Amino acid sequence: MRIGELAKAAGVSARALRYYEEQGLLAAERRGNGYREYGDQAVGQVAFIQDLYSAGLPSEVIREILPCAGEAGPTGDCAALMAKVQEVRDRLARQEQQVAQRREMLDRYLSGVAAPAGFPTA
Asked: Do 9 and 43 touch, CB atoms closer than 8 A?
């Protein structure tokens, strides 16, 4: 299928598909007229790429994940890759904890239970 067809089927822009190709995440064959041609598996691959981006993974990590999730079975050092993904997940968990602590502090300020340093309490 051509880029416009894939964009429509996957629910993304053609620009996003060109970006994925530029980042080495998606491959297309070039026809004699220069048009990109994508295989039937491309729709699922684009959805997978979108999911990984939504999870906060950068292109470099996604590029490494794709061979581990291919239809032909895992290739490369998938165990090391999973450790990288776990690191990203752990970093997100720490950020979530920081956000929760900050929200709790703001709730205490808003409820009048606490006041910022240097401000008199009521």
From this structure: yes
Cα 40 to Cα 72: distance, rounded to the nearest angstrom: 15
**Can you tell me the distance from the alpha carbon of 26 to that of 66, in angstroms, rounded to the nearest whole number?**
9
Give the strand pairing for 29-30 and 36-37: antiparallel
Contact 65, 51 (CB under 8 A): no
pLDDT at 75 over 70: no
Q: What letter does residue 29 receive in the DSSP assignment?
A: E
For residues 12 and 46, the answer to whether their CB atoms sit within 8 Å is yes
> Hey, what are 31's tokens?
């026809």
CB 61 within 8 A of CB 32: no
Q: What is the pTM of this model?
A: 0.69
Burial (Cβ within 10 Å: 0-12, 13-18, ≥19) of residue 101: exposed
